[in-house]
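Internal QA ticket QA-208
Title: Verify multi-chain structure generation after dependency bump
Assignee: T.L.

Test input:
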Amino acid sequence: MNTLLKYEKKQSVTSITFKIMVLLTIVIIFSPLLPGLIGLIFAAFGYIPAIDQYTLSLDGFNELLAWPGLHQSIVLTLFVSISSTLLAAFFCFAILQSCWHSRWWKQIETLLAPIMALPHVAFAVGFAFLFTPSGFIARLFGEQINWQLIHDQYGFGLIAALTLKEIPFLLFMSIPLLKQLNISATLITAQSLGYNNAQAWQKIILPQWLPKIRFSLFAVMAYSISVVDVALIIGPTQPPTLSVLVWQWLNDADLATLPKASAGALVLLLMCLATLLSIRSAEWFITLKCRTWLSNGRFSLPIGGKSIITITYLITLVTLPILLLWSFAQRWRFPDITPSRWSLRFWQQEWDYLLDVIANSIMIALVSATIALVFAIIVHEHSIKAEANKKFLKVPRLLIAIPMLAPQLSLLFGIQVATLYLANQYYYLWVTWAHIFFVFPYVFLALDGPWRSYDQRLDKVALSLGMSPFKVWWKIKRPLLLPAIWIAWAVGISVSLTQYLPTLMLGAGRISTLTTEAVALSSGQDRRISAIYALLQSLAPFIFYIIAIIASRKTGSLEQQTSTSTSTSTSTSRISTSNVSVSQQSNHP
Amino acid sequence: MRKLLIGFGLLLVSAFSQAADLNWQTVEQKAKGQTVYFYAWGGSPEINNYLRWADKRLNSEYGVRLKHVKVGDIAEAITRLAAEKTAKKNSNGSVDMVWVNGENFKSMKRYDLITDSFATQLPNWHYVDKTLPVDSDFSEPTLGLEAPWGVGQLVFIYDTETLKSPPTSFNELLAYAIKHPNKVSYPKPPSFHGTSFLKAALLELASDNTPLYKQADSKTFTVISAPLWDYLDKLHAVAWHQGKQFPASAAETIRLLDDGELDIALSFNPNEATTSQQSGKLSETTVAYAMEAGALSNIHFLSIPWNANAKEGALVAINFLLSPEAQSRKGDLAIWGDPTVLSPQYITGSAQKTKLFKSIPEPHPSWQAALEAEWQKRYGH
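Actual output:
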């Protein structure tokens, strides 16, 4: 009797602690949304104390609608984001189908780290240098090529660059998913039923992969809608995409453009939501309406994943040596293939100032990514409990995604004012908090697929054998999900390292990171100095990706585990083998 | 009675200026140990290195640290100040000093983001060349709310190897572009240099350019600006990428000139060709020149926000940047090459070689917004 009481007491203490942790997480993660969104909505409807406007009006929207070329700009933005997202998803799946666990897979996976670590801005700079009419490719031919890929009217160059940059991200996010989907067993089963390899991938694995990768696709879509820096470097200019327009208005010397800018930011946010719904409905359409196609064995699409991955890697990896050359170039003129004069000057000039900047960047990234990781795990665990127990309120996914989907600039204005009211001299606190806020959705997303694919029955078995809930988590769930956790951590670090606006706006310039320096310098178009910062910007996340990949290999996937592995995991693979089915698995979002 | 009144008025004026007078010794004492956060465009390694030098000098001489906060566009700082104004943060602000002119200054003035008048009370003010229009910024009176720092002139740069006699008027530029299609362009407005190109062209093409120095109203604007749009229609048809794309900035025109995509680049620094040669961005055969009518000229300034935390430090820093030593180094062709605002006799070194072109003053600011809006309507999409 006594022991039973003690047990119950212990139970309630654990659950109360957990509840407190959930509450704390929600406060820290979502409280910046309040001033951010309120600030955005108020500003969009004309309430901007900064410029002595205290009355609500629709002027901002009217000015926005009166902007010549707004419609073209919106259509262009949608075109760019939808095409780059769909292409990236299609190519990513093609690569997986052709290369998963082939001879090349190990190389592909190893190379993912440097490719992903290359920041978007650095990649855009390199991409532009390859493809301008007097760019590197033109230099190889020895004459200017009159193609239009950089700043072209239809955004083809921007679509190409975004697609190339997002394929590795989606691949990276797919690795833990596929490891849990138990592909080899599926393929064997499918082949025994007479499906060939391509059919098995497209009809059995695709419907399972799509819902799990959904959140990553959301991230890609949202990023491509609200991206500013890459669009400035290679995107169309007449008109530019809507995000670029909003950014220019927000940065206009004349503060009277603020209502128009805020209205634009709100429209951008709504556009994001609309396109996300379209992804969701496309997925629903594919997985539900194409059932006949799924179950008839006659037809599958041929896709050449090997050439796609080769092109992706080639273009991305070529940018690195080019950046390296530029950082040592004193003079490098068209049509020279290599610089004509070399110099160490730029490295020497920056060297003394770099240490501080690098230390700042890495410290903020480590702290914010680690905290965001802990929070993301807590929220995921809470969601599982909420699904099982209707008394728990679930955290809506959309809310989690907002920091990822909303244009940063519009949220930050409100957040900035809020910090000013509190105490803005704690620059490091605000910057780190803002980083946690913007990093969290990405970390959450990196864990989303693995957490969904985790077989809950393992927990049930362990609990019924008398383990405490925390022990179950630590001893069974954690080891199985550790590869995903490592990878999520690296994603968090790399996202933190690329944060420009939060660092600048909340750090008041007191905190310079590699990214703030890089962006400020890129406005001067001096390729040599931009190259130095782009290289360093790639190096930091690269190191952490390498750590994460090595660590996640050490912790190992189910499929790769040898026969010496623990009995838990072999039983898992047995259990999950029984999961393989040719029909569509239901997935409740 | 009238004499009395005048006398009383004079008394008032002198009392007023007394009250606002800076006691420089106190300022220097208070400034010791302060760190000045200086928000300035950070796109040029040459400028950044110059400011690093200024930081070292200020630290050893006055115990003031000058920390350059690199921004991609100074408007970011204005937005920041606006947020601080919203939160009624009237002291301990995060911005101590800004590098501004034109639209940004107008904004700061209009929304009360600037400290009290200080420029004429700086000890080094007497070095400043008063023949330069240092008391107006894009025809906006400065009232001592900002101190001049350097001179900008809209110049064109070309390579003597590819181009023997450069076009010296906008009409000649069009004739050149027709002969050499795909080789002429200008930065896309509303970028600073792009709008400047429009203003300079209109000043030459307008039948009468006196209205350009007065407030623009829509009727005058339509009549006066008509020749500019005719001109641009013809120019775009033969311009780089047929006017479907424009370079994003003056910096990009310089890169495109070096890459051989453009024959003529733009800059607001008359010494740009020389400094770019020194840093390896342009070939030794490039030359900067101004149009025959002169070069659109303006001055860029330094100012202090109303809520600056290190106000005294900022005053000391600005005063130092106006010293003959700092101005001579700024004008050094191997350092930055930005023309001085001091009288020439105080300048030493290669900065002495700078010869300014005949200057054309900036039109009334109202024209800027109107030109940008009209350009956007016609060509921006």
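Spot checks passed. The two ends of chain B are 66 Å apart (CA to CA).
Status: verified.
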